Amino acid sequence: MSSYARNSMKKSICFIANIEFSIKAFLVDHFKAMLPIYDITVITNTDNVDFLRMMGLNIEVIHIPIERKIFLGRDIAALFKLYSLFKKKHFNALHSITPKSGLLSMVAGFLAGVPIRTHTFTGQVWATHRGYKRKILKAADKIIALCATHILVDSHSQRDFLIRENVVSKSSSHVIANGSMCGVDGERFAANPAARREVRQAHCIADSDFVFLFLGRLTRDKGLIDLAKAFKDLCAVYPNIHLVFVGPDEESMKSELISICSPYDARVHFKNYYDMPQNYMAASDVFCLPSYREGFGSVIIEAASTGVPSIGTRIYGLTDAIDDGQTGFLYEPGNIEELRNNMVVLLENRDLLTQMGMRARSRAMNNFSKDIIVAGMLDYYRKLFSGDNISDKY
User: pTM score, two decimals?
Assistant: First the structure.
């Protein structure tokens, strides 16, 4: 049998995301497991259509300019390009993972008659909005759910929220294992004394100093103003503490965060982009995610896998990632005093810090390992293509 004939027998799946980064961050491990079984195509907004081949994955990447923000004319043009491509390629399944790509590809896939259409919800922008903006963004998610044949959600608490908000139904929505888009690589995210020294030396932080870390997009809905205020309050009492922000400054927040922390701004450090986040995890003592909305909080389990406990807000997504009082602490969003108190507890009790870090690592490996999530995704598609029933949890 020729190579072409063998490939033509494979089911074809097209994955769609707004940006190249989302593909790299969430889907590469899935692709490695799926390629021997399925023909994979990727659609994203990228100038480098060979980025997956450069990573050793023989996957066609198609550039379609799907914008993250709303641009009506460009969005309509992207919708028609997706529709035309779906009609031409005759994919067996579509799978979108970001909001705008989900809206456009699920509508286009519905119109083109693609038989299996999955969207993964990873958090709702509208959850922190009010008024007409909330209604419009929520309506977009409802359209995604209506046009999709199947819905995946990356945490159980987020799925419960979407069911309560009548965005998805219980029967059509599912969570792989205990949640997470891709799980965590326990070998990559692990304690690393050499990386700890290297990162700290780069920021002139002593080995004995205490480091709070935030890693992610620098935006207001991540609660960074709250974190900066809580940190400043502690600086007057604890001279050996540092706060490190790692991630792109999407809303030009750096100067404001520095101003809030003045006169202790020398203890606030920034790293705009870093392709080895595990090194910053290893260099930290406590991970902080004071967010007002999250889908799951993958960075929490990455920190946990590294043996670092977390402090996060008591919102859907993070309640799945943090076992309150065991692997870290949860607090009410916006409650700076509660955040500060939790930071103090871990600052002053190194034995508790160590115990929480050990429990966090164990929980991450037992519940959220990469192998568990990748196996769950394979089982998901096996059941979709065989017509088997899909359970609420794999």
Answer: 0.90
